[in-house]
C-alpha cells in the first residue's frame, strides 16, 4: 500500500507485531526483512508507516492505526506522544510497561552474557502513574514555547498546553517563561519529594533562575549538585539505587572503596557514612569539586576512569561503578578486577551495555550474585539496573 502525505509518497503496511525489542520497538517482518515498529504492543495487528528504509538489514516504522489491539493498550495521556521522542510507552498500561522492560532485560542478558534472569522491574516512590517525575528537562524553543525533539529527528515538537506530562510540575511554568526568550533551556528541580522544591533554569548557557548549586536529599543526608550537572532525574531514583548498592556491597568499618563515575559523590557519601574510606573518579571537574564538598573525608580525582584507574594501581574491598549509557568497557572492567574487590556494584542505565560489561567481568573472574532493575524512567523504554558481582567460587 502506498499513500501520499504532503505530496510525499509514504509506504504503509498492515503487519503483525512480534516480540518487544530493546529501544521500545516491537519486531515485525515485511517480506523477510525486520521492521522495528514504534507505538505498538506484541501480538497486535497494526498499520505501519515506514519511517526509515536506509539500512539493508532492517527498517523502522511508526504505528498509524491499530487494527487489533492488545488489552494492555491505553490512550496516551499526552496528545503529542506519537510524535515526540521523549516517551515510548504512553500507549501502554504502567504495570505492563514494567513487564515489557523485564522481557528486554532478560533477553539482553541471555543473548549477550548467557545469564538467565527472572527478576522483575521494580516501581519506585515518586510517580505511581508514570507522570510528573522528570526533574531535569532540556527544551528547544518553538514559537516562544517549550519544545522537544521528534523521535529520531532534529525537528522540534511543541509540548502540550500545561507542559510536558512527564516533566515535574514544579518546573513547567519556569520552562514556559524561559522559552519565551531563548533558543534552548535546561530546567532542573530538586527536593521534589518535599514541600519546598528548588528550581533552576539555564537558558542559552546562562543561569536565569535559581541557584548554580542545588540541594538533593537521600534519606537524611544532603548533597550539593550543579544546576546543569548530573543527578538522577526521577525523584525516587537516587534513594532506590543507593539502597540497592549499599545493601548489596555490605560495607564494613575500615573498608576501602572506589566510586567510579562518581558524579557529586552519591554512593561515596553513603559509604563514607558507614566508616568506609572512599576514593572517587569523575570526568567533570565541577562534579569533583562538589563531591569534595559533599564528602569531605573522601579523595576525588578529575579525569576519565579508563585513563586514571589503571595508573592508580589501587587495591579496594569494594567498587561502585555507574558508567554512562555505553557502559564501562574492557579497559575499565580489567582495571576494576585488578583491584581485587570482594564485591562490585555495577549501576547501569542500558541493558545491552550492562550485559556486555557483565560478560567482560565473567571473563575476568567476577559474576553477578544479584541483579535488580528499577522503573525510574516511566513511559520510556529505559530502565536502571544494579548488579552486585563477587569473585567466582
Automatic annotation (TrEMBL):
This is Class I SAM-dependent RNA methyltransferase. InterPro entries: MeTrfase_TrmA_CS, NA-bd_OB-fold, SAM-dependent_MTases_sf, TRAM_dom, U5_MeTrfase_fam. GO terms for biological process: methylation. The keyword Methyltransferase applies. GO terms for molecular function: methyltransferase activity. The keyword Translocase does not apply. S-adenosyl-L-methionine binds at residues 232, 261, 282, 322. The active site is at 349 (nucleophile). Keywords: Methyltransferase, S-adenosyl-L-methionine, Transferase. Residues 1-65 form the TRAM domain. Belongs to the class I-like SAM-binding methyltransferase superfamily. RNA M5U methyltransferase family.
